[in-house]
């Protein structure tokens, strides 16, 4: 059974174990307990995991800023 991600069902976030805490007034908080399979060779969170959390947190915050927003789409997101 999929977790409720602020009104959405997102199976990929279930696989990662992402836990939504809150999204309100343009802010959000997301939790993830890191497991060994989510780490990179330096034994820290893999960049793909970090970017996924960031992408979801930003979308949740954006959706919480207005009651009529049905969704948001990430057009471009980079890190270095």
Measured by DSSP, the beta-strand proportion falls in 5-15%
> What name is given to the CATH topology?
Thiol Ester Dehydrase, Chain A
Computed CA radius of gyration, to the nearest angstrom: 13 Å
Low-confidence stretches: none
Brief digest:
This protein is an alpha+beta fold and 80 residues long. It contains two helices and two strands.
Structural summary, described in words:
There is one protein chain. This protein has one domain: Thiol Ester Dehydrase, Chain A, CATH 3.10.129.10. Helix content is 30%, strand content 14%. The chain is built from two helices and two strands, in the order H-E-E-H. It has a two-stranded antiparallel ribbon with strand order 1-2. Strand 1 and strand 2 form a beta hairpin. It is globular and about 40 Å long.
Task: Describe the secondary structure blueprint for this structure.
Blueprint (H helix, E strand, L loop, with lengths): L10 H6 L2 E6 L2 E5 L15 H18 L16
Antiparallel strand pairs: 1-2
Keywords:
30% helix; alpha+beta; 80 residues; Thiol Ester Dehydrase, Chain A; two-stranded antiparallel ribbon
